[in-house]
Design goal:
The structure is a homodimer of 111-residue chains. Chain A has 111 residues and is of the alpha+beta class. Chain A has 5 helices and 3 strands. The first copy, chain A, has helices at residues 5-8, 12-22, 27-37, 46-58, 81-110; strands spanning 25-26, 62-69, 72-79. In chain A, helix 2 packs across helix 5. Chain A is globular. Chains A and B meet through helix 1, helix 2 and helix 5 of A and helix 1, helix 2 and helix 5 of B. Chain A binds a DNA duplex (30 and 30 nucleotides) through residues 5-6, 8-10, 12, 26-29, 44-52, 54, 70-75.
Chain lengths: 111, 111
DNA sequence: TGACATATATAGATCATCGATATATAATGA
DNA sequence: TCATTATATATCGATGATCTATATATGTCA
């Protein structure tokens, strides 16, 4: 069951960069991997992913190369140094945000 | 330090309903309370809050009443039954989402 | 008196995501 | 052999949540 799409907002780039920090991947593979790892919570749409990848490539966050696999040409994405820095920042930001939400949700019971 | 605004997306309603589940509040008070409880992470803007409150009132999620305090008329908001149900749903959704993010961020190290 | 915090409100802009649609090849199965 | 489904990438327009800027009015403090 996917969650409200708007919750995803802002964390998609972080999640993609995290995947790419482990190994190079092509777009479709990212969608599948995100879906599997999140137990179907994240169902990233192709219409969201590809424009996002293009934008990240333009900004020098990712690099891309083509590779033929089984007669098909796939576009593999690789995380650049700039991307690793952004990933680290976003992971930090995520922790801050998640902790703040927890504070609001539990403060009432604690106080 | 506030986080990227887009991270907030989708969780603002939940946070407001949480506050109102504890006691009735007026708009400005909600902004201040969110800011304090989150250690300045959430800096909800008035331009975001008031239209949102109006919308939630229209949908029957909240009810509103006026109260004069120190010569000033404030609008106090109260959570309706419908709002309590929505809050419970959204808290559940938040847990699901946060866990899914954690899964993606940690799977690489675990696998 | 002037500045600042309190308090609410609206209009327009921005940005991330989605839905719909398009194209093309490989694999599967009838 | 033919149809269907999965794989794989791509773009366009719509949606929705938030922000910025602006407006108004009162109370408080210096």
């Amino acid at each position: 069951m996917p969650v409200d799409k708007s919750l995803l907002s802002g964390s998609t780039t972080m999640l993609l960069l995290k995947l790419l920090s482990e190994k190079d991947m092509y777009g479709y593979e990212m969608i599948e991997t995100l879906r599997e790892r999140s137990q179907n919570v994240f169902e990233l749409k192709a219409g969201t992913l590809y424009p996002l990848l293009h934008g990240l490539e333009e900004k020098g966050v990712l690099t891309v190369y083509e590779k033929e696999v089984g007669g098909k040409v796939r576009k593999y994405y690789s995380i650049a140094k700039k991307g690793q820095k952004i990933l680290a920042d976003k992971e930090e930001e995520w922790k801050t945000y998640a902790q703040a939400v927890t504070n609001v949700l539990t403060a009432g019971g604690v106080v």
